Automatic annotation (TrEMBL):
One of its GO terms (cellular component) is nucleus. Interacts with ETF1. Interacts with the ETF1-GSPT1 complex. This is 2-oxoglutarate and iron-dependent oxygenase JMJD4. It comes from the Eukaryota. Residues 119-283 form the JmjC domain. Transmembrane segments: none annotated. Keywords: Iron, Metal-binding, Oxidoreductase. Pfam families: JmjC. GO terms for biological process: positive regulation of translational termination. The lineage of its organism: Eukaryota, Metazoa, Chordata, Craniata, Vertebrata. Its cofactor is Fe(2+). SUPFAM superfamilies: Clavaminate synthase-like. Gene3D superfamilies: Cupin. InterPro entries: JmjC_dom (IPR003347), JMJD6_ArgDemeth/LysHydrox (IPR050910).
Length: 404
């Protein structure tokens, strides 16, 4: 990120005046296709797609040198089962049954990859049918056990990835997933195969909700196709292509062929406010669900945070620690910089201008966090630094940077 791009981004957020980025940008009538890596920079992606929060598709030219595209796929473009069995056959993987619905999701089981591939071959021989139903390998954290560099090269466009930066720092988890499955199953890159994506811009999903506020299991069911929604955006993703899925866009994915894909969930400065709003909504939903025990359950607010962590994987306490880890990784870089020292051109990587942008986004969201009544009920006595002190550090660091 260069200085002009940071100025563009700061102007964008000032213009939002507290509104969510995902609710403001005009809804596109199509999904752009980015063809040539040499003529598409990080700044181009940041300004045209990441900041305005709209989807796009990158051509297979962006991933043609990836190791997994060369080793996991046969010359005919099919999954190379022999290679996968030889290298990962005994690894235990999570598998979802797409033919069974439980609480608007699919039940999961765990099995060795060799057993799943045996099922997959049987499914293909049975003309894509099996008494066991349609099983889909989903959320396999292969990067925990194998170097990501052996599989793929992280595109520079997605280098500002706070979620995986946070978990890599803690050395606990990651949000990099491998998905495999036969035709008919449910940033995503197709290593092989084809997928159909249906995108609903932020806000349109409200028309899909049932009387309990739940979203449908399948948006292609007749009752939804006949509803008076704006036209959904449809994309067919070919082998090697990479789809950018923006924050807050409800989407549904369908495998058109036998498919292997790599998927990343991520958070950064552009969608941090969306994330904070989502967490507030999740807590509100939990509080409503257990509201009848509010006056009788000791430490009811704490229990709501525990339930939220169980359901969403994160609560307000961990969100603060997430902000703290990213902030503490940016502050040393910014503190070394004086006014007028960051005018160089930076198109890739997390250089000084990007660090300043990140800190400004954390400071704005943290200012909202510390005054939130539910966060104020969280026991922060052992937090180091205290949230108010971290906010002050961020504000002081920003005050020393080159003003826009």
């Amino acid at each position: 990120m260069d200085r002009e791009t940071r100025e563009f981004a700061e102007s964008h957020f000032r213009g939002l005046q507290g509104r969510l980025p995902s609710k403001v940008s005009p809804t596109p009538d199509r999904v752009d296709f980015i063809e040539k890596p040499d003529s598409f920079s990080y700044t181009d992606f940041f300004k045209s797609y990441l900041l305005p929060n709209v989807p796009c598709v990158f051509s297979s030219a962006f991933t043609e040198h990836w190791g997994c595209r060369k080793r996991w796929v046969t010359p005919s473009g099919k999954p190379d089962f022999d290679h996968l069995l030889q290298n990962y056959g005994d690894v235990v993987v999570p598998v979802a049954n797409c033919g069974v619905q439980e609480y608007n999701s699919n039940p999961k089981e765990h099995m060795p990859l060799k057993d799943y591939i045996s099922y997959w071959k049987e499914f293909i021989r049975g003309d894509y049918s099996s008494p066991r139903g349609c099983l889909y390998l989903k959320d396999w954290h292969l990067c925990r056990y194998s170097s990501a560099e052996d599989l793929f090269t992280l595109p520079v466009y997605f280098s500002s990835d706070w979620l995986n930066e946070y978990w890599d720092t803690l050395d606990v988890d990651d949000y990099r997933f491998i998905y495999m499955g036969p035709a008919g199953t449910c940033w995503s890159v197709n290593i092989c195969g084809r997928k159909k994506w249906l995108f609903f811009p932020p806000g349109q999903e409200e028309a899909l909700r049932d009387s309990h506020g739940g979203l449908p299991y399948d948006v292609t069911a007749p009752e939804f196709l006949e509803s008076h929604l704006h036209p959904v955006l449809e994309v067919t993703q070919e082998a090697g292509e990479m789809v950018f899925v923006p924050s807050g866009w409800h989407h549904q994915v369908h495998n058109l062929e036998d498919t292997i894909s790599i998927n990343h969930n991520w958070i950064n400065g552009c969608n941090l406010a969306n994330t904070w709003r989502f967490l507030q909504q999740e807590l509100c939903a939990v509080q409503q669900e257990v509201s009848e025990w509010r006056d009788t359950m000791p430490d009811w607010h704490h229990h709501c945070q525990v339930i939220m962590k169980s359901c969403s994987g994160i609560n307000f306490e961990e969100f603060y620690h997430f902000l703290k880890v990213i902030a503490e990784r940016r502050l040393p870089l910014v503190k070394k910089i004086g006014p007028g020292e960051v005018r160089c051109s930076e198109d890739s990587g997390l250089g000084p201008q990007h660090a300043i942008f990140d800190i400004s986004r954390i400071a704005e969201v943290l200012a909202s966090v510390v005054v939130n009544p539910d966060f104020q009920r969280v026991d922060t006595s052992k937090f180091l630094p205290q949230p108010e002190d971290l906010l002050q550090q961020l504000q002081e660091a920003l005050a020393t940077t080159d003003p826009l």
